[in-house]
Amino acid sequence: MEFLAHFDTACQPRLKFPMSQNNFQMRFVRCFLKFLLAFLLVTLPVKAQQMEITDSDRLTIRAVISSQLEAFQKDDAEGAFSFASPKIQAQFETPENFLRMVKVAYQPVYRPRSVMFENMTTIEGFPAQQVLLLDQDGNLVRALYLMKKQSQGKWKITGCYLVPVKGETV
After folding, report:
1. Beta strand 114-123 pairing with 126-134
2. 39-86 confidence digits (pLDDT tens)
3. Segment 150-169, tens digit of pLDDT
4. Exposed/middle/buried for residue 143 (C-beta within 10 Å: 0-12, 13-18, 19+)
5. Closest residue by Cα to residue 116 from 129, 127, 131, 106
């Protein structure tokens, strides 16, 4: 216990004698709460700032997604790949690998019959554009595009989740 009394000088008393278990727990809780408060004060303004999306951002995000969908229609692997975030690009390495994956796993995105943009939302701290897609078989699918603004100020697609719209076919 004497070691623990000297472990964290910012949160522990400067005592050289053993502390009681109850006193140690109270000091630990106070230290933890101070740390938590400091962490929240530092991170909350950043998160709030990141989630602020302007009307210009919304238009740009729609344009990025529309441009990628147009590139898929033309089988333009390089064009479609250019709208993916650096993380996605690193994962697939080449435009051809990326296009191959989209053809197999994201058929409604690759060849939609119809596209309708819905509201923006936030998922896991990322702005997310909801897009209603009509696939080749007439099934409605909601694509949730996670977007991230890059350091250069450009919006890139950092993920896409497909959610079937149950009971809806056209």
Report:
1. antiparallel
2. 444 444 444 345 588 899 999 999 999 999 999 999 999 999 999 999
3. 988 899 999 999 998 886 55
4. buried
5. 131
Q: Give residue 93's identity as a one-letter amino acid code.
A: E
- Residue matched to tokens 């408060």: 37
Count Cβ atoms below 10 Å from residue 106 Cβ, excluding itself.
Answer: 17
What's the rounded Cα separation, in Å, for the pair 111 and 74?
10
Q: What stretch of H or E contains 49? A: helix 21-51
φ/ψ of residue 99, rounded to 5: -65, -40
Q: Which two tokens stand for residue 77?
A: 């692997």
Q: And the tokens for 102?
A: 């989209």
Side-chain-side CA neighbours of residue 64 (13 Å) = 24
Task: Tell me the one-letter amino acid at 134.
Answer: L
Which residue type, as a one-letter code, is found at position 44?
L
Residues 133 and 141: their CA atoms lie apart, in Å, by: 5
